[in-house]
Amino acid sequence: MSTETVTGLVAVVIVTIATLVIGTWGLRFSRTTSDFFVASRSVRPALNASAIGGEYLSAASFLGVAGLVLTFGADMLWYPIGWTAGYLLLLALVAAPLRRSGAYTLPDFAEARLGSRGVRAACSLMVVAIGWLYLVPQFHGAGITLHAAIGAPTWLGPVIVGAVVLANVSSGGMRSITFVQAFQYWLKLTALLLPAAVLLIVWAGDGTPGSRMPADPGWSVPLASGGSEGLYLTYSLIVATFLGTMGLPHVVVRFYTNPDGRAARRTTLMVLVLLGVFYLFPPIYGALGRVYAEELAASGRSDVLVLELPRLMVPGVGGELLAGLVVAGAFAAFLSTSSGLVIAVSGVLSQDVTGRLLRARRVTGVAVFRVSAAVAVAVPLAVALAAPNVGVARAVGLAFAVAASTFCPLLLLGIWWRGLTDVGAVAGLLAGGLGSGAGVVWTLVDGSASGWPAVLLEQPAAWSVPLAFAVMVGVSRLTAWRVPAHTRRFMVRLHTPEALELDRG
Amino acid sequence: MTEGPRPERVRVTGPPRRHLPRTRTGDIDDQTRLGSVYLGSLLREQLRLALRTVGVLMLTVGSLPLAFHVAPGLSEMHLAGMPLAWVLLGGLVYPLLVLLGWRYVRRAERNERDFADLMSEVDR
Fold first, then answer.
1. Is any Cβ of chain A less than 8 angstroms from the Cβ of B31?
2. Alpha-carbon distance A292 to A301, whole Å?
3. In a domain, A346, yes or no
4. To probe the interface with B, which of A500, A501, A503 has the most B CB atoms within 10 Å?
5. Could you give the maximum distance between any two Cα atoms of chain A, in Å?
6. How many residue pairs from chains A and B have C-beta atoms closer than 8 A?
7. For residue A341, what are the domain limits?
8. Contact status, residue A182 vs residue A371, Cβ threshold 8 Å
């Protein structure tokens, strides 16, 4: 066993053990079903913001961004910007009303707002679809990382991540996961910040190579290549990421753990700060990789740039230690994002599928949640093992596009427009889901052809989001007699501060 | 002095002199026209604030791709020794996002305080 294998192995084992220990420690606070689902709605903003940050920063953020920047240049900086700006839109348009709605999942919100089981079923389907679409690349990333760090077979990473997540989620639920994820945000930040500082010092010591090179025109333009098609791709990416964040099931579930609407806002603001600090670093790896590790881009292994760069730039033990730290951060990224997604998906499954089936047999709420968590892990794990060749960043990008085309219109219109009806909501979900889903299928099946039709399918958000909005508004107007009678009371609940004594329905 | 059982103490009360003043929350609960106006004003104020925040975001960050598309010369400009695109997209965008968020939270909470003050005033 070489030294690189040892540091990588030690890093993975330490993160795994720390995750399990903190999860078990959090277990002491987890007693009721409410603890499991929403940490009994009592998580303070500072802790909650760290947990949201820890949950949100996935494999795509930790590994993907640096690799994309190395390969494609400045236009890839839009990914981290979009992932952060998505929280600004969430803050301004959704955060406080969503918390005040008192619902736990997106299907709960839809049912409470529109009073329809049909809308609820459609939303449950979308939550599970988006959650699984987002889980598969996390498992893939784990496989790549373990392969790069300790030379393990690529099936081992997904299996380990799946097992640890399942153990943690099903033992402690949301309450213990909150501590785990808050810890993992700070671990990820340290694991990126410390090596970046050292690498920058090394770079300065080398006489800042590369800084006086004539600017590569393609690399420092923040636009996808190809004239107006590139402009479309860039704007479509902006639409998908800015609007998709609010529709991601694991992001939304987090808001129910805030004590009230005001805390939800303050939590979101803190998340903006935490994400902004984190995303300063991946581009540094991308830019340094341009100088020191250009062969990674050429050989199509740019996803491992963050893992390899410390070893390439710092010889000896120092480089090994930094590499171990980065592996630990990457592993934390898979664990935390997967945990959040599994919680969200199993929350929906246990309410709408397994709960129905098992409650007839008098199984308790916590047991139902555990069964659902097992299902939520098993399906995407099987897909990840069966189809190991789906790109990490692409799949995550598509999950954002689908979320932006379905839940974003539902949330925005549900919160701000009294005229939304159940029929309109289902029609809009269908239009946006099919439109963006066509893009997903296209990318997974083929995705090779060029020209406008391919460009439109590759990055569907710029047309599928307006389409979903238009269909939702249009059909709601045509079915205006179906506007629920309690709409106004519900608006009171969504928008008035909790301190006021009002009838909230 | 005779030691008999003490007469039971009787509390003398009358009907309340005046009705409790009607609060404005009652208007909202009863869904009166006035209540509808109160709620509508809060909703409009909050939506306007949200849209203003999103609008500033679109005008600043959202206009960058178009600016670089229309004026390709921008990508050759440098700021503090680094390409302009990198300084803007890799660094300066994030403080701007936080600033917009901070301003939004302050104003949204102020709107809610104003609404709460309006509700706690009583009509005489």
1. yes
2. 14
3. yes
4. A500
5. 73
6. 137
7. 3-390
8. no
User: Helix and strand tally (H, E) in chain A?
Assistant: 24, 0
| Contact A33/B at CB under 8 A | no
- Chain A residues whose beta carbon lies within 8 Å of the beta carbon of residue B108: 96, 265
A160 is a domain residue? yes
Domain membership of residue A76 (yes or no) is yes
B44 contacts B102 by C-beta, under 8 angstroms: no
Residue of B nearest to A225 (CA): B69
Q: What is the pLDDT of residues A146-182, one digit of tens each?
A: 887 777 787 888 888 888 888 877 776 556 677 888 8
The DSSP letter of residue A41 is G
What's the pLDDT tens digit per position in A236-282? 989 999 999 888 888 877 777 788 888 889 999 999 999 999 999 99
Q: Least CA distance to B43: which residue of chain A?
A: A495
> Is there a domain that residue A437 lies in?
no
ipTM score assigned to the predicted complex: 0.87
CATH number, residue A80: 1.20.1730.10
CA B58 to chain centroid: 21
Chain B residues with CB-CB distance to A221 below 8 A: 68, 72, 75, 85
Number of domains observed in the structure of chain A? 1
B75 has a chain A CB within 8 A of its CB: yes
